[in-house]
């Protein structure tokens, strides 16, 4: 190698560095010395934060019957406004200028402006962009503007307990309830980690691990149909007002797929104003976590078990005496009347406790208990919501006949509403135990997607013929017996 050529190359590189250093120094000189006061004045007037650290989160969508999407949880952008009291020379003039644009309490503003030991006092939050543009025109010294983004729920109260909301857990904004919590890994955006990962990859081979985290990010599309949800919430609210109940709820499910079209509770709350709620229990979803003795709606499950095991048919008859004494305890029909010799169809038509007990006596205790467990009444359903509970069937471990008799009409055993709905779906879908769920699709930011279906996971717990027969019997109940047929829908059976 030519030594002179090598020296020339070193000199060239040295002079390049020297040139760039001089350019940088000149730039700093112009910024700090020549235009220093101009930039200081500009900084004193206002400060708008960059977008880098703005809150970000994946969206949640409802889906209409025609396939179109409706935002359930999205992001909204606005501005926080603060003042530097040390730069405020005429608070009265500034207040008069700002109050023409923003709704500001004068006493509050003057108090903030008087805090001369502070350099930052917030005076307004979530100011819309159109108003902030008017504020910027004023060029008020000491004014600080910070861009902000937050979670917004367009439906306000719509499916509140199902959606859940985003709130602080320590210093972090995370999903606290509902879908927001259950799908935290999908909805969370790891913005702050992006910078750490860049340098981490230089020093260690962790690229695959980092990529896996980011591949989880996406948005979720739910099975909730807005019109169905709105209808259900209206009905639940009406029932709550009519009976002045402390808690009323309802679930609408597709018994074949497990997709939940509506899940409603009363009372409910406004997701955009959850901080105003004093009773934090309103955020919970008792439809998946509450345990209740379900009463007479368990009778169809008892009857289906009797049909499936072959001990009764719709025409099997018994003599109804109106009461039954077992283990020194006496149980009665709801009206405490004897109904004579009647068949199993009439047991459902008239919702007779003694008739349901008769079915269990024909089945035997162990057989009946086995069917209740087949229905999944003592296990979690697997629904995609947090804090799911499971039913209690401990009474069916007892040797006492009375426990099984009362369980036949839903007393002495407890379960969640979602467990109950899933079990009743077995009667309508050919005898299969399905998985209820609320999210049908995840769209990942990587461009991939996941269509969610649990149809192949359904377990056969009743014969198809049993499902068809109990469905026929319950159709008769609705069309002819329930309120003397007044609840039958026109053109439907």
UniProtKB/TrEMBL annotation:
Protein location: Membrane
UniProt entry keywords in alphabetical sequence: Membrane, Transmembrane, Transmembrane helix
Segments forming domain Penicillin-binding protein dimerisation: 73-195
Keyword Transcription set for record: no
GO terms classed as biological process: cell wall organization
Transmembrane segments: 12-31
An annotated GO cellular component: plasma membrane
Gene Ontology MF, one: penicillin binding
Stored InterPro entries: Beta-lactam/transpept (IPR050515), Beta-lactam/transpept-like (IPR012338), PBP_dimer (IPR005311), PBP_dimer_sf (IPR036138), PCN-bd_Tpept (IPR001460)
Family matches, as PANTHER family: PEPTIDOGLYCAN D,D-TRANSPEPTIDASE (PTHR30627), PEPTIDOGLYCAN D,D-TRANSPEPTIDASE FTSI (PTHR30627:SF1)
Protein's recorded name: Penicillin-binding protein transpeptidase domain-containing protein
Species in which this protein is naturally found: Candidatus Taylorbacteria bacterium RIFOXYD2_FULL_36_9
